[in-house]
Design brief:
Strand 2 and strand 3 form a beta hairpin. The chain has helices at 41-51, 67-75, 83-93, 99-104, and strands at residues 18-20, 25-27, 30-37, 63-66, 79-80. The protein is α+β, with helices and mostly antiparallel strands.
Length: 105
């Protein structure tokens, strides 16, 4: 009997850039990372949906993701960057929402 189809993990289209910083933000008994796109919110939401990240984890310009998901998200196609690089690229993209603006929403 020939082997069945090989099941592959879903990975995101590598032509897009979704970034993730190291899990360094403590809350709720774990460390958290930020998941962002430097292209569009649509791209970010599509990646998050494919990865099974609930929309409630979206915080104005990023998704908060726990340490337990970090390696999985990198394997799925998120580019691991430093926190500084993530912020600089988010600002350069025009997608950054400043803290003062978040408070006003």
């Amino acid at each position: 009997m020939p082997p069945g189809p090989v099941k592959r993990r879903h990975t995101y289209d590598c032509r897009v850039t979704v970034l993730i910083d190291p899990p360094t933000w403590p809350a709720h008994d774990t460390l958290w990372s930020h998941l962002v796109s430097d292209s569009s919110y649509d791209e970010l939401h599509a990646f998050a949906e494919l990865a099974g990240i609930p929309r409630r984890a979206f915080d104005h310009d990023h998704y908060d993701v726990p340490l337990a998901r970090y390696d999985e998200l990198v394997a799925a196609g998120a580019s691991a960057v430093t926190g500084r690089e993530l912020v600089l690229r988010l600002i350069a993209s025009g997608l950054r929402v400043a803290q003062r603006d978040k408070r006003a929403l």
